[in-house]
Amino acid sequence: MKFKAFLTENGVTLLEKRFLPALEKMGKICHLYLTRDHAMFLHNLLNGDGIQSIAQFRKEALFDDYRISSQNEDRIAFTIDVTLLQRAVRSSVSICSELGGSGVTANRLQIKLVKKLPPNCTQPMPFLTFETKGYKSAVIQDIPISKPLSRAQVLELQGALDMAQDLPQTLVQVPDLNQLQNFVDRLKQVGDVLSVSISKYGDLHIQVSTTMITLGAEFRKLLVIGEKADAPSQDQNLSAQTRSSRSVARGDAQTVQVSVKHFAKSLQCHLTKPDCAFYGIAPLGACLTVIFQFFIPGSRQTDKSISLHCRLPVLDPGTG
Amino acid sequence: MSSSAMEDEAPDVVCQLEHVQGLVDALGAVRWKRHQDAVVELSEHGIILIVEESGCLQAKVYLKRELFARYDYSAHGRRRFGVSLGLLVDCLNAFSVPGQSSLIEIQYPGPDMQVLLKKVDSLDVSIYAEIRTRIPDTMPWDYNFEPAGTNPLTFTVRSAALKEAIEDLEWPGSSIQIILQPVPPSVTLKGEGHGDLQIDLMYYANTELLGAFQCDHRVSYKYKYKFLRATTTNMPSSVTKENRGSKLTIGRGGLLKVQHLVTIGKLPSSHAHVDSVGYQQPGRIAHIEFFVKPEEIEDSE
């Protein structure tokens, strides 16, 4: 089992400034799953009822000189502490800039998988090692990682990943992530369960309701991807709640309940500076999905080498 | 605008307000703990929100009808309902978008006696809320504030300085003595307990800090620290930024009245200096009053 690659400058920026801060909010520990073509950061795919987050990079988006080999179709997966990873990347960046001046190529940042015997241990342990080579010196940082996943576990992870790729039939574009985040932060003060309705007309309706208070927001005429329909004119002047329940009854909308905390967490992904975000409800209300899109810099074209989406587990109406 | 159901029986009050953040600030100023019940009084003159604690502390927020972009009152006399102050403030906060003013409509009662709130300035984004109200179990207590003698005992002090002084007095102990004396004209705040701390505000030393001083005889009263602190603990940052003053008056029996002014909405940019008591544009100011009962009567007369 071998893995060795050089992080590109672009890759370092992408991780340090955008993705790692967001992924850290999703949870401290994640799976790093490496294949021949992709590197993926996966949260909560195998365990628990937390929010699932799937960040996938084509190897060219982060690395050059990418070499991987394993007896399991060149696939390697392990768990890693995102905070430690972020710290290592950050200090490598500062070392690079300190050592800089001798040309960019000299300060390349290599990462590789190693087994080392830590002090006071009898058994070698796996590490992800960052090596920053300067003109005269090199700095090495070892991040402890879990034992690589077994063949069966990798298959299970791949299975969960395949399962997590199903697209909602209707997706609506969130108009202003900051505004929505601001609102949801306020909602957190009021209640724990958020009901989310999404219609084919381009309505996104979120609401917290307790015995004391109901607080909600409705965003209308949003851009719809997938199945869409024209909003019936007689629904124009209704209250948001009535409109939602009518749309659901007509089969043009779906409603799910999720944890307000999960929803707020999913909005933390705006730290990755996406160019747009879409919410949708998976078929049969299995989960609430949010998909972030990244454009090729300076264009309106989707950058297919980076993808990020989250899946929020749906609460049983009984537990609300 | 409104649906036909509403027209059948008009609600007691429908009002619209442009600057939600100002309302959040004003109501937040009387929120000294997480869970507080408030009584809201509606009349043709505006809205008053009242909060009380232990029969010793009362706070009132006056929102005059001039503060509102629209204020329709259709009931006769006064209407009163109870509501959780925390929920009301948290909820109003959700309507406040940083850097933007948004027009909200407040209506009472809803079909189930709720307070209804909704954002009304955009067709494509609507924010709405319904807050349960209750019938207040007790009438707010009337403090019946009367001047202590023929001349009022009163002074104004920079709100920020008052807040700072009260914060500094946290360390010595549980009760704070306030002394007003005519010679030399000064106000003293004194804490005794784990050590002593005395803060003297001298009228002639700094007229910027202490003003409108009126006192014809020496008075001294003790107040519970936690009640005094409640009067400044959540003072909105706008009060400090605008360099406003607070007015303190000691009434009969040592009853202390503390008054703050909170700006609702932006001040016009032309304006450079705010008079310490801020008599510009009363329509943009919410008045806040705290009444604190003294602990025990000392040499008052």
The largest pleated sheet of chain A is described as: 9 strands, antiparallel
Taken as a percent bin, the fraction of beta residues of chain A is 35-45%
CATH class of the largest domain in chain B: Alpha Beta
Oligomer designation: heterodimer
What structural class is derived from the secondary structure elements of chain A? alpha+beta
Radius of gyration of chain B (Å): 21 Å
Count of DSSP-assigned helices of chain B = 6
- Summing up helix and strand content along with how strands pair, one would put the structural category of chain B as alpha+beta
Overall pLDDT metric of chain A: 90
Helicity of chain A, as a percent range: 25-40%
Summarize the structure.
The complex is a heterodimer of chains A (320) and B (301). Chain A contains 7 helices and 18 strands.
Outline the structure in words.
The complex is a heterodimer of chains A (320) and B (301). Chain A is α+β, with helices and mostly antiparallel strands and 320 residues long. Chain A is built from 7 helices and 18 strands. Chain A has 2 domains: 2-163, Box (Proliferating Cell Nuclear Antigen), CATH 3.70.10.10; 170-319, Proliferating Cell Nuclear Antigen (Box). In chain A, the strands form 3 sheets. Chain A has a 9-stranded antiparallel beta sheet with strand order 6-2-3-4-18-17-16-10-14. Chain A has a 5-stranded antiparallel beta sheet with strand order 5-1-7-8-9. Chain B contains 6 helices and 18 strands. Chain B has helices spanning 4-8, 20-28, 85-95, 159-168, 225-230, 237-241, and strands spanning 13-17, 37-43, 46-53, 57-64, 70-73, 79-84, 104-108, 115-119, 125-131, 153-158, 175-181, 186-193, 195-202, 210-214, 219-224, 245-250, 256-263, 285-292. Chain B starts with a helix and ends in a 9-residue tail after the last strand. The A-B interface holds A 175, 179, 182-183, 186-187, 189-190, 211-221, 237, 239-240 and B 3, 84, 87, 90-91, 93-94, 97-98, 123-132. Strand 13 of chain A pairs antiparallel with strand 9 (125-131) of chain B.
